[in-house]
Amino acid sequence: MQRDRSSNSGKGRAAPLALLALAVGAFGIGTTEFVIMGLLPEIADDYGVSIPTAGLLVTGYALGVVVGAPLLTVLGNRAGRKKMLMLLMGLFVLGNLVSALAPSFGLMLTGRVVASLAHGSFFGIGSVVAAGLVAPDRKAAAIATMFTGLTVANIVGVPLGTFVGQVVGWRTTFAAVAALGVLGLLGIARLVPDTPRPLGTRLGGELGAFRNPQVLLAMAMTVLGFGGVFAAITYIAPMMTEVAGYSDGAVTWLLVLFGIGMFLGNLLGGRYADRALMPLLYVTLGGLALVLALFTFAAHHKVLAAVAIALVGALGFATVPPLQKRVLDQAHGAPTLASAVNIGAFNLGNALAAWLGGLVISAGLGYTAPNWVGALLAAAALGLALWSAVLERRAPVQDAAGATAPAPAPVHH
């Protein structure tokens, strides 16, 4: 027992700095993922394309995450986790440099996809590393700490990047994001402990986690729930300027509100997911569906629109730590690939929502129509959460190895 306490003590000392390094990488990734929302009109004008076509920069990035998450995780299966995190940040830097210099829309889209390939594996592997740095009852909090970088990006990085993009030019924004990636790479190299792949872990074992229906249900909740967020936020700039009556410059401050909501929601999710994971999902997904439905009407009023944006960020990101922890719990013993694929699932939701939002706008239903799409997606995610709980109550023995089992099960050696 003394050795265990000593090991935990070492973990405790190393954890804050390592989590800080992961958060810095997450800050850079979060900035490039979300800053595109505020710059869609400028990029569309520069390349001479429509707003829905420019929305492909969101869809393309999200699909790149979906593909890159499992692909790069599998390719890096034999590498140490720290080495993989460093390689992924290098790929991220390259993609943003391509975007900053792209002479055509097609090359700009290519740069977005290259950068996005690193995204899923970074957060997937990073979640496993973060959870491994702390005691079992602090896993969701550690994951939330890493994702704090992503949420702070929306308070500082995205609004600042949007402002710079509108005043100086959007290419400068992407060059600055590439520099952030270099900073993240250096932080990981310096502060994250070298954690090689656990002995005995094989690709077959990682793939076996997907035989658990609870893993698949959690990923489906991720796709639909986070899709609800992106349905509204992808087209936030034209919605706020054309419907609510805000100026172009005000979009920056509205994105700050969204970022503050994300930050607070992430903290809430990290605080309560270790204690009451499923009830937290019921509340956040139900609340998200309701707020998105009301956003359709609130978008016509400046103050109500601002409140709705903050609530969408808070409720959406309160689902991130519990959903990521649920996948880690249910994929017990082989979490790396499942964790990365779940990050891909967040972005599959982003891509689905951006595409559906573009469809309803192109159909002439107006800039508020994507909010209804988001409300339906979030409501569907709530339905899956309730179904998951019913299945778990019927077959609690399946989760004996997972931390979320409803009652302790006997362990057979």
UniProtKB/TrEMBL annotation:
<feature type="transmembrane region" description="Helical">
    <location>
        <begin position="344"/>
        <end position="366"/>
    </location>
</feature>
<protein>
    <submittedName>
        <fullName>MFS transporter</fullName>
    </submittedName>
</protein>
<feature type="transmembrane region" description="Helical">
    <location>
        <begin position="52"/>
        <end position="75"/>
    </location>
</feature>
<dbReference type="InterPro" id="IPR036259">
    <property type="entry name" value="MFS_trans_sf"/>
</dbReference>
<dbReference type="InterPro" id="IPR020846">
    <property type="entry name" value="MFS_dom"/>
</dbReference>
<keyword id="KW-0472">Membrane</keyword>
<feature type="transmembrane region" description="Helical">
    <location>
        <begin position="113"/>
        <end position="135"/>
    </location>
</feature>
<feature type="transmembrane region" description="Helical">
    <location>
        <begin position="280"/>
        <end position="298"/>
    </location>
</feature>
<feature type="transmembrane region" description="Helical">
    <location>
        <begin position="147"/>
        <end position="168"/>
    </location>
</feature>
<dbReference type="InterPro" id="IPR011701">
    <property type="entry name" value="MFS"/>
</dbReference>
<keyword id="KW-1133">Transmembrane helix</keyword>
<feature type="transmembrane region" description="Helical">
    <location>
        <begin position="214"/>
        <end position="238"/>
    </location>
</feature>
<keyword id="KW-0812">Transmembrane</keyword>
<dbReference type="Pfam" id="PF07690">
    <property type="entry name" value="MFS_1"/>
</dbReference>
<feature type="transmembrane region" description="Helical">
    <location>
        <begin position="87"/>
        <end position="107"/>
    </location>
</feature>
<feature type="transmembrane region" description="Helical">
    <location>
        <begin position="250"/>
        <end position="268"/>
    </location>
</feature>
<dbReference type="InterPro" id="IPR050189">
    <property type="entry name" value="MFS_Efflux_Transporters"/>
</dbReference>
<feature type="transmembrane region" description="Helical">
    <location>
        <begin position="372"/>
        <end position="391"/>
    </location>
</feature>
<feature type="transmembrane region" description="Helical">
    <location>
        <begin position="174"/>
        <end position="193"/>
    </location>
</feature>
<keyword id="KW-1003">Cell membrane</keyword>
<feature type="transmembrane region" description="Helical">
    <location>
        <begin position="304"/>
        <end position="323"/>
    </location>
</feature>
<feature type="domain" description="Major facilitator superfamily (MFS) profile">
    <location>
        <begin position="18"/>
        <end position="396"/>
    </location>
</feature>
